[in-house]
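Figure 2 data, in text form.
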Amino acid sequence: MWHRGCSHPLPEDMAQRESAMSPVGCPPSGPFGSGTPSHSQLVPREPIRLVIAEGHQIVRLGLERFLGSIEDFTVVATATDGPESLAAVRAHRPDVVVLDIRLSGKSGLEVACDILKAGLPTRIVLVPEAIDDRESLEAFRLGIHGVLLKEM
């Protein structure tokens, strides 16, 4: 299965998960897909594993402490630049990478593209201070899973 707008396929398990989604992106649930949670959905699951890739130390520490304090999340690694971010994602295979768009050494969009090309099953959330139209279009083209602006 090919990733939206990209020239590389989705990892097989991610393609299967996306094909099982309803038209609004929700997995089928209950015995008849009625929206009622099934027993398996009520069973406790493992925390979502995160890598935080952020060039600004204060923001990185804040995200690490905040997200790490939430029961459903576990921060497995942090990174300060593009190459370190990609290495952390490859080493830890997190569920989600929280990725600053303006990292030194390699931009967040370049790291995102490398993650997708490598077929890593990691969801990508960009966390920029600001994002211009070109970057928004590139993020959309890559199939980035979310963008969270650092605005207060």
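Caption note: Confidence is low (pLDDT under 50) at residues 1-5, 20-34.
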